[in-house]
Amino acid sequence: MEEKFFGHSVIRKEGREKVTGRARYVDDLAFPEMIHGVTVRSSIARGRIRGIRYGEGIPWSEFTIVTAADIPGKNEIALIEHDQPCLASEVINHPEEPIVLLAHPDRYLLEEARRAVQIDVEPLPAIFSMEDSIAKRAVIFGEDNVFKAYHLEKGDVDAAWAKADIIVEGEYRTAAQEQLYIENQGMIATANPADGVTIWGSLQCPYYVHKALVALFGLPAEKIRVIQAETGGGFGGKEEYPSIIAAHAALLAWKSGKRVKIIYDRAEDMVATTKRHPSRTRHRTGVTRDGKLVAMDIDFVIDGGAYATLSSVVLSRGTIHGAGPYFVPNLRVQARAVATNAPPHGAFRGFGAPQAIFAVERHMDQVARAVNLTPEEFRRRNFLRKGQTTATGQLVNEDVNFDALLDRAFRESDYHAKRERFARENPGATIKRGIGFASFMHGAGFTGSGEVYLASVVEVEATREGIVRVLAASTEIGQGANTIFSQIAADALGISYDRIEIARPDTGAVPNSGPTVASRTSMVVGHLVETAALGIKRQLVDSGLLCDACTEDEFVRACKRYIETRGPLRSRTQYEPPPGLQWNDKTYSGDAYGTYAWAVYVAEVAVDTVTFEARVTDFVAVQEIGKVIHPVLAAGQIEGGVAQAIGMALYENVVWRDGRMANGQMTNYIMPTAADIPPIRVFFEEQPYPFGPHGAKGIGELPMDGPAPAIVNAIENATGICVREIPATPEVMMEAMTEKAGALA
Amino acid sequence: MPETVSRISIACRVNGEPRRAEAYPMARLLDVLREEMHLTGTKEGCGEGECGACAVLLNGAIVNSCLVPAIEADGADIRTIEGIARGDQLNAVQEAFLECGGAQCGICTPGMIIASVALLERHPHPSNAEIREGLAGNLCRCTGYQKIFVAVVRACESASEKGPAIR
Lengths: 745, 167
What we know:
With 745 residues, chain A is of the alpha+beta class. Chain B has five helices and five strands, in the order E-E-H-E-E-E-H-H-H-H. Chain B has helices spanning 29-36, 92-100, 109-122, 128-135, 146-162; strands at residues 8-14, 17-23, 55-58, 61-64, 77-79.
């Protein structure tokens, strides 16, 4: 197949609408007779609802008021478990729990009304830390507060300690992080018994919303329709939470008989929607004197918040990525997702892996020091290689070459020269400079048998005019799905990029190609797009209307002839796993992912030892991601992920007060600006993956994993301070520095 | 709130066209543009002047329209993202954002393009530091800013080639 578009940086498919301001996001959509909706939430973390009072001075008869009693079907947000209510009716489990919904045409009056609703609550003891949850200071979920636990065992860890010359222990923590897409969440709904429910909204996964609404309304699947509006960023934050807003808007529409729009403002979006799971990881590592890993014992805990949501899956990815890209003959990972009375934590780019990789990559620097090796030499002695097995016992059968990635990353960053220079210049300097790195991997696609269960479907259809439309539920959220699907389909059919159209994700019109998550869209769904497009060509060739090597004009004529003589020209493809993949859900072993992207990232920092501020001054990202589909988009994914991870490493600090985010504003929750981000230099190594389109692997989440440990390793190189938690804010740095001074004294 | 205050009539020029709107004096210019004039290219990201998604040019100066009371728009000349292209002819900054990958999800893009246009009017050949400084009031969560920097440089290169296309 000729690669006319694959590998080239064609113009983003919907780019023109975006640069002219014509792209229509959910809040840009207006309909006649549309009214607005708001959510009345709890104000305390845990308790029993005694009553709801509607205060004086509000013309309540003009309002549509919805409580749990108005739900036609089940009061739940269907996802994995069924523990999260759509509206709390008896028990409150977190301080942002939705209880009452209001709708009115006047947004200003609506806001006054929202403040006039008082929820009378009998408080119950609440827990706000993983430690209190584990200690069962209050039991808020099941018998032990544990949403999910995994136990991964490889080799014989208990016997292996005896073979270790040195044992190194360490504890590492990562904080909650807000996705902070710039478009706040929002939904528009119409709903009535005759027509069913229709939703327009900002979302990543149309069929997740669809599933939730089917359960909530008790309607047949075809009576629920979910349409994605242009979506201003997701990063996981619009994976599961949109189901809640869609449910709320739909309930208000159902009761009022009117079209209802709910748009969160930034404060509500920040405090109420999901964030990255906070984590605590304890490592115990046995190593020989010459720096070979003998055993690793990892205790990984994440804070799931008040409901199960996706925590089990986030935990799974953290568990599998917890040992890093190293060959560890004896490994134990014990992982738990625990309940607290905070709003549920959820999907965020990386999905458990950034937390686990922060811990292991910080720890590897500590182990290296304990055996008197440089961080790079220690890692070189333990890198996973072809023919070895991963944490889950997956045999590595691709030519993973971490030595080459490391060499390139060091060359591009001038690592050795800088390390020497900084060591020379730092003594006596107020601003100390350092350089550090992390090596890591990210599994692409759903874990284990996940893709088989999803059984994703893509359709491609051709019109009489020879326009080819891709029908998939995969959403464009900025990452470039529209563009990449178009490149793949155009090359498969040998036609021009402009001839491809991407259908708007609409559950009434497109098949379920699975959620837009898990670095799966280009690799898994892109492959389906290619196969389905080839199916169109096959039909034309088999019907004698086209030869294999055709011109675009011939293709267009053949489409017309086919449709006129035989009817619709469509091709449908369903996911089939690559041959030989084996996964055992019970033992949690086998081929966790079809493939992994592999990477080495180098960060350079400057730390002001007076203010304790750390700044990233240079960044090099080297990764092997299969074949690059679109160089500009691919680099854009890496650069954006690195920037987001710089925020995670240094700036983005959720301040909690009794389970509630106290700094839910962009003024005091600080994400990196144009002035904070260093040059990010991105390099790709390409090794085709046979089961991705043209050899491509997934890359979206990879860049979230490595920067934080690389940056904190660089901080340690600069200052000698061992920071074990992120974000490494000046306060955290000061504490660590004071501890170090105390230890020396 | 509006009981004691009544709406006022606001007359201004928006993207070169005379426009009128009825609004409360302290209504946000952002809402007047989006709701009264249906110019939805200007976005709300934070509502408190931190993110720059609502940036417009007010008498040639860049402002966050979420912080500007409607009364200040009376008699003003306003330029929004809808007025940056000339018909189908994109501005050099828009072209550069398209070519260089400066827009991903697109929600910060209108504000970012307004900020870039304002920057290039102040500094036709900005240094790297001036670009960073000039765009520091506009938050982007997708790009890590790198491709936006490249786009701004590309836009001034193409402006030098083609003459003052930036305006």
